[in-house]
Design brief:
Order of helices and strands: HHHHHHHHHHHHH
Strand content: under 5%
Distance between the termini: 41 Å
Number of domains: 1
Number of helices: 13
Radius of gyration: 21 Å
Length: about 290
Amino acid sequence: MTTVDLSEYDVPGRGRGILDVLRWRFLLRLLVRKGTATRYRNSALGWTWSYVKPLIQFLVYWLVMGFIFGMDRGLENFPAYLFAGFVAVNYFNEAFGNATTSIVDNRALVKKIYLPRELFPVAAIIGAFVHFLPQLAILVLVVLLYGWVPSLMGIIAILLGIAILAAASLGLGLFFAGLNVRFRDAQNFVDILRMLATWASPVLYTWVLIRDNLPEWVLYVYMVNPITIAVELFHYGFWRPTVGDWHGFPPHFELYALGAIGICIAFLLVGQAVFRRFERSFAQDL
C-alpha cells in the first residue's frame, strides 16, 4: 500500500483563523477592491457621496446640538470638536456594520469554495477604512481653518485611535458575523449598537458632563469604552491644537486607555472563537 504524505495539506474548514488572512493576501486585496469598486456602481455622483453624506450628517448634528441645544457655548471651536468625534464614530459604525453582514453578503463564495472566512470581515474593515479617508481629508481641512498645526504626539494619538476602532469593530464584527448567519436578528441588534455608539461616547458633548451629572462608577464604565478612548484621542490630535483652554483628559486616562485596549483584545479573542464555532455550518445555514 502506498502511503501519501498529507502534512503539506490543510483540512478544509479548519484553518488558523485570522492568521490565515496573511497567507491569502492576494484574495484579500481582490475582496477589498471589489467592495470599493461596487459601492457606488451605477451612481451618478459616485465617490462624491463619501463626502456629501457625512457632511450633511455633520451639519444636522451641528445645527441641532450647537444652535438649538447650545452645546457650543463654552466649548471653543465646537464644529472641529464635533466633526473629529463624528468622523471617528462613523468609521467604527461602517466597519462594524459591514463586517457583521460580510458573510451573508458573500454567500455565493462561501457556499461554493473553501477559503478562510475571516477574509470577509477583515476586507470589510479595510474597505470601511478606504471610505473613511475622504471624511478624514475633510476633517483635516476643517481643523486647518481653525489653525490646526500637527504634532508628533497628535499624529500618534490619531493612529492609536484608528487602531482601537479597527480592533473593536473587527472583534465585534467577527462575533456578530458568525451569529448573523444563523440568527438574522443579530443584524438588528448591531443596528441598535451602532445607533448608541454616537451617544455613548463624547461626540455631541464632553466627558465633563458625565462626571458632573452621573455617579462616579458610570464615568469609569464610560471611559473604558474603546469608542470613548478613540474619540478622545481624535480630539487630542485634531481639536486640542486649535483651542487655547483645553479641559484635558480625564484623570487616569492612561489606565482607561489600557483597559480599552484590553477590551479590544478580548473582543478579538471571543469574536474569533464564536466565529469559528459557527463557520462549520455557514454553507448549510446560507
